[in-house]
Every structure is written in C-alpha cells, then in structure tokens.
C-alpha cells in the first residue's frame, strides 16, 4: 500500500464557539489531484489553510512526507499556494514574479531567470517573461501564479478556487491545462472548489465536505455514481430524492410501488433512494415504471433537455430528467417516466 504524502489526523478547528472543522482525517497520495468540494461554510478552505500553514488547528496533526508540519509556518513547509486573486506583484515583471520564491531562498539571479523561463514554458507563457501582470489576460495571470508556485518545486501545491474569476470557456480550458500540467510535473495538487463539474473534470480523489466534516471521498466517478450519503448525492450533481422502506430481502416499498432492488439493509429499515436525471427515461415500459407526471419545466441545454415534472402518484415529488436534445416534450405534457433499476441509488444516511 502506498504511503500517503499528506496525512491529516483528527483535525478540528474552532473559531470561538463555531466549529469550522470537526475531527477531520484525510490521506492524500503522492502525484494525486485531490479536490475539496463543498458549499460555503463546509470547511474546505479552512482545511486548505491548515495544509498551507496559514492556520494552526485547534486539535489534531498534519504530516507531510512523514514530517509533523502542524505548527510549521508556510515558508518552511513543502507546500505553495495559488490564491483566487493570484496575488501577483504589479510593479514586477512576470519573470520577477515567478522567480520571487527562489529569490527569497537565496538563489542567484541567473539561475532564477533560467528556472523561471523553464516553468513559464511549462505553463505555455514563454513570451511573457519581460511583461508586467497588467499586460496579461485573466487566464494568463492565473498561469503566472501557477508558475510562481511550481518553480520552487513543492511537494504539495494548494489551489484556492483558482478558476473562480474566469469566464466559463476559459475556466474549462484552464481545467484541461491544470490537469495536464499536474500529470507532467507529478506534484500532488489539492484544489478547493464549490463547482461540481470542475471537481469531476479534475479530481483523481474527490473529497465532499459539509458542516466541517467529510461526507464522502474517493474517485470522482465513484462519488458521483455511488454516493455514500444523501448530501453527496445532491451536491455532487442533481438527484431526485425519495424515501423507501425495506420490507423483505431485496424488496423495497416506495411511492412508485414495490421494487426489487439489491440491498443489504435489513428488513424494516427506512432508507433514502436517489435517481440521477440522466437515468430517467420516457415511454419505456419494459423498465421500472415511475408513473405519469405533468411536465412543469423544460430547459434546452444544448446536448440535452432538463425536464422537471410533478408526479401523479405524489405531486409534492418533483422528478428531474435529462432527456435527449431532440426529445419531443413541452411544459404541460403528461408523460410516462421510467428508469433502469440498476441505476437506483440506495442511501443509508
């Protein structure tokens, strides 16, 4: 088993009466791309600040490369941080910005310039060395901030919502570039975001956080397709959530009737079930029927139509469906919905 590069052990962080992190433990593997995902107030930025040395946890321990870094200041630990506002020095050239960390470490001017040029080439900006930050676009400034962090060769690179200020097209482009750069340099990246699509595009290791705790963690595909909790199922993408009761071996009573679903939950237990919208179909009676529903909203989103419907069996339950872009469905239509039972998610918490 691979030894973790970073070990967070039972870390809690309190600010007065408020508990920002509550007994969090987390292992981060070498060469991995870890994404901390969660809403505002979930604790993800607090955890990143503790990893970077900007906060000392109230309790717990942080080990990096086997060394206890819990109380170590940022400049002395093997991490660097890329902030959302980039924090570039406006009076310095791009080359001087990139080489600043090396300058603080006493590296000679010629060597600083050489290494700055190399890392600017890595991030696709070899021509920007002599420019000032104000002469660059937002995406280019983001790459300069990334180059400045990488030039000191950290063991762990921390990214605090680095794409938050970019437009959608540029954000997606930078996602691809960040992933490619991380694979080339091999440094472990830890990236904070509240954007689920960004997390799925980047993460080898996705950590879903809520109220200062880790709700779910693992490969992004597993967290999406087999979420560990109701919160994870609703935050990591959309879901229709409804209740059920296990009445026998593999038999579950739901608002849609009795379903045969594989589960190891003991009979008599109340459970929560979830359906991803892409697994809801229309007019396919050979699948698991969800009944008839009145379409309340249709939103065309390019490659698909996002459909919301109120079900006849329970009008309070709003069903979400992601139908093909050419599906003939309009607001007010009565439609028969169905799903494949293998895609129904059984949640125990």
Secondary-structure map:
Blueprint: E1 6-15, E2 18-28, E3 33-37, H1 44-52, E4 59-64, E5 67-68, E6 79-82, H2 94-98, H3 100-104, H4 109-122, H5 138-150, E7 156-160, H6 168-185, E8 188-193, H7 196-202, E9 205-210, E10 213-218, H8 220-225, H9 230-235, E11 240-248, E12 251-254, E13 257-260, E14 270-275, E15 280-282, E16 288-300, E17 304-311, E18 318-324, E19 334-339, E20 345-347
Parallel strand pairs: 3-8, 3-9, 6-7, 7-8
Antiparallel strand pairs: 1-2, 1-4, 4-5, 9-10, 11-12, 11-14, 12-13, 14-20, 15-19, 16-17, 16-19, 17-18
Helix pairs in contact: 4-5
Organism: Taklimakanibacter albus
Keywords: ATP-binding, Nucleotide-binding
Protein name: ABC transporter ATP-binding protein
Largest sheet: spatial strand order: 6-7-8-3-9-10
Which residues sit in consecutive blocks of at least 5 with pLDDT less than 50? Answer: none
Mean of all residue-level pLDDT scores: 89
Named CATH topology of the largest domain: Rossmann fold
What is the number of domains? Answer: 2
Level-2 CATH architecture of the largest domain = 3-Layer(aba) Sandwich
**CATH class division of the largest domain:** Alpha Beta
Proportion of beta-strand residues:
35-45%
The count of DSSP E runs of length 2 or more, i.e. the number of strands, is 20
**Content-based structural category:** alpha+beta
SSE string, helices as H and strands as E: EEEHEEEHHHHEHEHEEHHEEEEEEEEEE
Rounded to an integer, what's the Rg over CA atoms?
24 Å
How would you describe the shape? elongated
Organism: Taklimakanibacter albus
Protein name: ABC transporter ATP-binding protein
Keywords: ATP-binding, Nucleotide-binding
């Amino acid at each position: 088993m691979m030894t973790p590069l970073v070990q967070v052990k039972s870390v809690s962080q309190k600010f007065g009466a408020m508990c920002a992190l509550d007994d969090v433990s987390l292992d981060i593997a070498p060469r991995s791309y870890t994404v901390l995902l969660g809403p505002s107030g979930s604790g993800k930025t607090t955890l990143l600040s503790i990893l970077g040395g900007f906060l000392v946890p109230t309790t717990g321990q942080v080990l990096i490369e086997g060394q206890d870094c819990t109380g170590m200041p940022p400049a002395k630990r093997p991490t660097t941080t890329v902030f959302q506002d980039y924090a570039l020095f406006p009076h310095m050239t791009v080359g001087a910005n990139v080489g600043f960390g090396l300058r603080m470490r006493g590296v000679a001017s010629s060597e600083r310039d050489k290494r700055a040029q190399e890392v600017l080439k890595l991030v696709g900006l070899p021509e920007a060395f002599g420019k000032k930050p104000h002469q660059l676009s937002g995406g280019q400034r983001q790459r300069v901030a990334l180059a400045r962090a990488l030039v000191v060769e950290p063991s762990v690179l921390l990214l605090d919502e680095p794409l938050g200020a970019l437009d959608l097209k540029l954000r997606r482009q930078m996602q691809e570039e960040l992933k490619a750069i991380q694979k080339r340099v091999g440094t472990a990246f830890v990236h904070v975001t509240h954007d689920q699509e960004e997390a799925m595009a980047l993460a080898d290791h996705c950590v879903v956080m809520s109220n200062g705790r880790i709700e779910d963690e693992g490969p992004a595909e597993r967290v999406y397709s087999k979420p560990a909790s109701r919160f994870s199922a609703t935050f990591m993408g959309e879901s229709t959530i409804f209740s059920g009761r296990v009445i026998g071996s593999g038999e579950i009573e739901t608002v849609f009737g009795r379903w045969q679903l594989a589960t190891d939950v003991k009979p008599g237990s109340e459970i929560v079930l979830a359906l991803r919208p892409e697994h809801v179909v229309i007019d396919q009676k050979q699948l698991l029927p969800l009944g008839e529903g009145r379409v309340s909203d249709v939103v065309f989103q390019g490659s698909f139509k996002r459909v919301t419907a109120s079900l006849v069996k329970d009008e309070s339950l709003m069903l979400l469906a992601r139908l093909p872009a050419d599906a003939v469905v309009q607001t007010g239509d009565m439609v028969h919905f169905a799903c494949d039972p293998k895609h129904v998610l059984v949640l125990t918490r």
